[in-house]
Design goal:
There is one protein chain. By secondary structure, the chain is of the alpha+beta class. The chain has helices at residues 6-12, 15-22, 26-38, 43-55, 68-83, 103-110, 116-123, 273-278, 295-306, 314-317, 331-341; strands at 134-138, 141-145, 152-155, 161-164, 169-173, 181-186, 189-192, 201-204, 208-212, 216-221, 227-233, 236-240, 249-251, 255-260, 265-270, 289-294, 309-311, 321-325, 344-349, 352-357. It has an 8-stranded mixed sheet, with no helix packed on it. The protein has a 7-stranded antiparallel sheet with strand order 3-4-7-10-11-14-15, with no helix packed on it. Strands 17-20-19 form a 3-stranded mixed sheet, covered by helices on one side. The protein is elongated.
Length: 361
């Protein structure tokens, strides 16, 4: 059984905190980065609350009386007062009507039976031991190839992921910092693209280009060179690279488009039931959940997942331990959270990330 201290509970019922964890934007990211810098001694409670919110993200939504939240708050506040007297967290929580999906969890907290470790351990079942993608850096770009017989996940620094099937490879700019995010694909892969309306995402195959904003889709090439793109979510525009006017075909969810490179003809159609069920190939994903983990090991995990070199001095950070879950964040947001936890800063220079700071006590 795990009890929450007053600080942790105040975070959990703060609207700004919930929005930062579940729907981060430039404003709330800046606010909480500043808050952590100003209150380093409260970071442990903040990270614990963050883990709880993330762990409960996908809980089912039970039917609960709308009048229940205040009763739950009162029970929790009373329980905290009788269990301990800790200093109040240095922020002003905004009490609100909690979405129903959180009520079962809040009620469990009030009863003192929240098993946070269960949520976290269940998430860890998805975490593979290693990232098995061959990575090479050439002229500021990275080439990543799946040389195994299993599907492997390649993580992009913008928050997108690519499931590379056996033999497939991608190459791209290391940090995707250009106005257009561009990835070149050989073989079969499933893309889940992070939304960024200001920077569209392009996938290039030898014959076809695919333009997306934020969506998920599968690209598959058969032995005759015919290319099929199947869309799971969002929409994409597909066009022939040989077409100077780049006249694209728009493909929407549960639809597919097939390109014959010999005739340069596109054919669109709906996906059948089997295709809908298998459009996303199975693959083990990294959960990025860490408990009392040396920060150097966390940096190594990020290096392997993103194919980015992170330079951090062993003597400086050798004693730093971090507990956090950073599954859904982009690469830079992961860096910000980890660095805030150990009072460090980072700098991206060329194709490297440099970490600086003071030793942990």
């Amino acid at each position: 059984m795990e009890h929450l201290n007053e600080e942790t509970w105040e975070f959990i019922r703060d609207d700004r905190f919930i929005q930062w964890v579940l729907d981060p934007d430039t404003t709330n990211i800046a606010y909480w980065e500043h808050w952590m810098a100003e209150h380093p001694h409260h970071i442990d409670s903040l990270m614990k609350a963050r883990e709880i919110v993330i762990s409960m993200r996908d809980l089912p939504q039970p039917g609960i009386d709308p009048a229940l939240p205040e009763e739950i708050y009162a029970a929790i506040d009373q329980g905290i007062a009788t269990e301990q007297s800790t200093s109040h967290v240095l922020l002003t929580p905004v009490r609100r009507r909690i979405p129903y999906r959180w009520m079962s969890v809040a009620a469990a907290i009030a009863g003192g039976i929240v098993l946070v470790s269960v949520f976290i351990n269940n998430n860890n079942k998805n975490k593979p031991a290693v990232v098995q993608i061959d990575s090479q850096e050439i002229n500021g770009e990275v080439i990543r190839t799946n040389k195994t017989t299993d599907n492997q996940v390649a993580y992009l620094t913008d928050g997108s992921t690519v499931v590379l099937q056996s033999g497939a490879s991608i190459h791209h700019e290391t940090f995707l910092q250009r106005p257009q995010r561009e990835v070149y694909l050989k073989g079969d892969a499933f893309f889940n693209i992070a939304k960024d309306a200001q920077r569209p995402f392009f996938v290039y195959t030898p014959k076809v280009a695919i333009r997306v904003l934020g969506t998920s889709f599968n690209v598959k090439e058969d032995k005759d060179g015919n290319l099929t793109v199947m869309v799971k979510t969002g929409k994409i525009s597909v066009y022939n690279l040989a077409d100077a006017g780049h006249h694209g075909y728009v493909v929407t969810p549960n639809h597919k488009i097939r390109f014959n490179p010999h005739t340069a003809v596109f054919v669109t159609d709906s996906m059948n039931v089997e295709e809908e069920q298998h459009v996303q190939p199975p693959a083990q994903i990294m959960d990025f959940a860490f408990e009392d983990t040396p920060v150097k090991e966390i940096f190594k995990s990020l290096e392997m997942a993103y194919s980015v070199k992170i330079i951090a001095d062993e003597a400086t950070f050798g004693k730093c331990l971090v507990t956090t879950t950073i599954t859904h964040e982009s690469f830079e947001d992961k860096l910000k959270i980890i660095c805030a936890a150990v009072n460090a800063t980072y700098k991206i220079s060329g194709n490297r990330v440099y970490i600086s700071g003071k030793p942990c006590s």
